[in-house]
Write the structure tokens for this entry.
Amino acid sequence: MIKVYSEIGKLRSVLLHRPGNELENLAPKYLSDLLFDDIPYLEKAREEHDVFAQLLRDNGVKVNYITHLLSNTLKSNELKEQFLNEFLDLSDINNKYIREALKDYLLNMNISEMIDKLTSGIRTNELKLKKEVFSVKVRKSNMDIPFFLNPMPNLYFQRDPVAMIGKGATINRMRTPARRRESMFMEYVLKYNEDFKNTPLYYDKKLPYAIEGGDILIFNEKVLAVGISQRTDPEALEILAKKIFDEYDDTFETILGFLIPAKRAYMHLDTVFTQLDYDKFVVHPEMQEVIKIFGIQKKDHDEYTINEEKGTLKEILEKHLDVDKITLLKCGNGDEIAAAREQWNDGSNTLAIEPGTVITYDRNYITNKELKNAGIKVIEFPASELSRGRGGPRCMSMPLIRDDI
Ligand SMILES: NC(=O)NCCC[C@H](N)C(=O)O
């Protein structure tokens, strides 16, 4: 079951990925292609991630690991092969010999080993081929990309590839090929796992427009906010609105498109703006100046109105959340350098586990202090390694069930 009608309702069940060998397959020459700026130290990253998962459990949250859910879903050989075929298609493995060799190699593994291999990546020197083939030989000697299957180092950012909204989910088309295969993991769980298989799907990764979960915020059961950003196209929001308003008739009536600058530091809406409590948000100070907001409002069947929202961010939030006074706390306490530094390390990417209680990285101590001064309960944990992937506690988690607020 999926039930997520807010950003702050008591979190009951969440999706995570424990970082694995995919991080050991990062190397400087293709780091930026894989959307990393640095290489985390796996052992420490795992320790930090385990602390995060335990904090969630200690607070009554059920932690579900995506790789476990997927291996429990791909039980039949038929489904396992179907998954693998689609994965190879999305990895652009069109060469007959390479494809055959990969299939032989992977289908002989048990399902957990296969999933671990797919996430870690498969190097060109790892496969034994039955005979020498020209194209394979050439590919193997191309040391710029030493993989047949690239690793999936961004998988620990479970927020982005699939997003739970209300009673349904979007299967996202990720902006770059580096992350496109990630959406398949939860897609298969939502389509074929007994516990999830009736979930309405509000977006399909085969659509031509990009949308990523870090851009989707759920204000309440009536209002969604979607960043139009480096990672999300306005056309995707239009398709989402149609699905939610008309086809599946979920409770949402308004979708607010937040136009944010298309740059790496901002990446998704949740890297500059997250909700802490009924009436409190943390924001990157620059965001208030640069943002424009367009609202799509449900009218009659198949019809909606479009308005540019007037007023400051605070006023627009007060109107749509129906709260008298919204407080916007500034990342880095508004200091230009502290704000930029802490936002880069995801100071404004908090995960609310109930109204007024959030999980954050301890390194963003200036922002955390400001939150505490405003009466927020801040649960901090160390993340020197995890933060190198440019995502915080919200980016690393996808709520599956929250209590209503
Ligand atoms: N919601 C988020 O902001 N997720 C962080 C994703 C970081 C990842 N390295 C990326 O560039 O996609």
